[in-house]
Design goal:
Length: 321
């Protein structure tokens, strides 16, 4: 497979996963904001920080309120990570590799694109309740996942796409946990309070983990929720589960079933192995925020190693000619 095609498949899926995550974040946080004063900054600011785009937000806007945050994360063309930008980029990636994907995948990506474009033209971020819009985006992205899995052969292209999706998912799970622990809970007195439990429940719902968590643990506790979202091997949105399946797809691409044959396998394997053998009590003892921050940095390192191992090959060859 051409490195250009692999790179495009990888990023197409990352963009779709990012858009779906933003849609679920805003849906859940809108529900949570109903319990807070209207336009409360402490409710909407963390939603921007989740994405890592707080510096850009500060450059574009002077104040933090519900309408501005929804526009910034949902529709802002100057935000490269907004839902509109992600879906637009995913569609362009899909168009450039049209022969590599199926008619059904292309039609579904187009459907999502025109739905988001219509929402932008109708200025839906000004609606009192935009949850139906974000719920539809989330459902349409999930439908695309199903079409992608059901209609595309398990070739290298499918595995590159799956790796992109899983790396993006692991990153977003770590970010939403970090914001809850480090920002939303502002005073030690709130630990264990009804506000604290409401926030933890919202965190679980933002990654569609509430039902599976309650089935396994029952009672809501910070320790158990963190263990579930970081270390659970069976829940598909946990950080460890994402890395396990990303490594499996990478091994299908390289044919390596032990050790590593390139830097991407080495970095991904090391990070996955460390999560497999870490204890949640040790994570809390050293600091959950510090652990999640380091994880995000190392996951970025994994992404860079993927580019260097697979996607930079084409440009290197061209440079030698």
């Amino acid at each position: 497979m051409l490195s250009r095609v692999a790179n495009t498949m990888y990023w197409m899926n990352r963009y779709i996963e990012r858009a779906e995550n933003y849609a679920r974040f805003m849906d859940v946080h809108f529900n949570l904001s109903l319990e807070s004063p209207p336009d409360a900054e402490e409710q909407w600011k963390p939603l921007v920080i989740i994405t890592g785009d707080w510096p850009l937000y500060q450059k574009l806007y002077k104040k933090v309120n519900k309408s501005r945050v929804i526009f910034f994360l949902g529709f802002e063309p100057k935000n490269p990570n907004s839902i509109y930008s992600c879906i637009t980029n995913a569609r362009e990636n899909a168009r450039s590799i049209r022969p590599e994907i199926t008619k059904e995948v292309w039609e579904q990506i187009n459907s999502i694109y025109f739905f988001v474009k219509e929402g932008m033209e109708r200025k839906l971020w000004k609606n009192n309740d935009p949850r139906i819009f974000f719920k539809k985006i989330k459902e349409d992205c999930q439908l695309l996942y199903g079409i992608f899995d059901a209609t595309i052969s398990r070739s290298d292209g499918w595995h590159f796409g799956k790796i992109g999706q899983l790396i993006e998912r692991a990153d977003k799970t770590s970010r939403v946990m970090d914001v809850k622990y480090h920002i939303l809970l502002t005073t030690p007195q709130d630990v264990g309070s009804s506000i604290d439990l409401m926030q933890w429940a919202a965190l679980l719902k933002s990654v569609s983990a509430y039902d599976m968590y309650r089935k396994k643990y029952g009672k809501l506790t910070a320790l158990n929720i963190s263990e579930f979202l970081i270390l659970d091997k069976k829940f598909p949105r946990s950080m460890l589960c994402c890395l396990i399946h990303a490594e499996q797809s990478l091994q299908e691409i390289t044919g390596s079933m032990g050790g590593f044959s390139n830097e991407a396998e080495k970095q991904l394997g090391k990070l996955k192995s460390e999560l497999e053998f870490v204890d949640i009590n040790d994570i809390f003892a050293d600091g959950l925020h510090e652990y999640l921050d380091e994880f995000q940095q190392r996951l970025n390192g994994v992404s860079i190693s993927f580019y260097n191992s697979f996607f930079a090959v084409q440009s290197q060859i061209q440079g030698q000619q």
